């Protein structure tokens, strides 16, 4: 096969708690991550020449070495030089549907799809765990994007424990298209404001993680108690992003008033989502939101939760 086509799912965070600083300069986290059906389409195609090329349908996405999808291919080429010598280089085409700079891990999902696609194209035969270990070198969210579904993520976000799926649920995502929040800024702002509360003792950290493992949200997920799940939604980044971007705070308040199970900002934002029990309810919320905020800059995406991170197209 000379090319593979893959769907790379976005993610939302149902829970995100920043626990403390790590010796590697990153933050210690405990999160509950969830894949959503809104996805980019990635094609990896063998080209005769020994090169990595990236094309993207979205003008804001770089196609050079700063693109995480490029870095994913470069990492595999470096780890497996014989295979690239045998099969040649690759062109990566990215059809963007996931909003950019949104807190939805679009870039990480693209990198995850490239790892899966090149594993096939270059016949590497990597296991899921090997792919996840390589993914962790690219970015903290890449291992989850590879695994997909519903999971508790700890460490930098790369240590994953799968949870029971939430596939019956739907979700409405909303983002002001012209607004993006750089993740490094959000972490820095959080450290500046809340760094004095960080827990840095291993035992304290474990206790905090354990509190989530045995907490109300995980219990609600396993019992399919969606009302409680909606009430337990929580994201520490809201404390720094919402005060700086009142437009996002207003969006969250408007969405919360339209019903659904619960409303939260995803990751470092600025996407806000509302969980819904049915497709009809999600559609109703999307229509209500459009009426409440008729600003063309506001993108609204009704979609559903999914158990799949990366899906290979037939
Ligand atoms: O791993 P990733 O490339 O997604 O991280 C982007 C930035 O977010 C990092 O440079 C770091 O500043 C911050 N980060 C962090 N702690 C994490 C994950 C990310 O401080 N657990």
Please render the helix and strand layout as text.
Layout: E1 3-21, E2 27-47, E3 52-56, H1 68-79, H2 81-87, E4 89-95, H3 106-121, H4 128-138, H5 142-147, E5 150-155, E6 159-162, E7 170-176, H6 183-194, H7 202-213, H8 216-222, H9 226-232, E8 234-235, H10 238-244, H11 246-257, E9 262-265, E10 272-276, H12 279-292, E11 298-306, E12 310-312
Parallel strand pairs: 1-8, 3-4
Antiparallel strand pairs: 1-2, 1-12, 2-4, 2-5, 2-11, 5-6, 7-10, 7-11, 9-10
Helix pairs in contact: 1-2, 1-3, 3-4, 8-9, 10-11
The structure holds cytidine-5'-monophosphate.
Could you please describe the fold and organization of this structure?
This protein is an alpha+beta fold. The protein has helices spanning 68-79, 81-87, 106-121, 128-138, 142-147, 183-194, 202-213, 216-222, 226-232, 238-244, 246-257, 279-292; strands at residues 3-21, 27-47, 52-56, 89-95, 150-155, 159-162, 170-176, 234-235, 262-265, 272-276, 298-306, 310-312. It contains twelve helices and twelve strands. Strands 1, 2, 3, 4, 5, 6, 7, 8, 9, 10, 11 and 12 form a twelve-stranded mixed sheet that branches. Helix 1 (68-79) crosses helix 2, helix 3 crosses helix 4 and helix 10 (238-244) crosses helix 11 (246-257). The structure holds cytidine-5'-monophosphate.
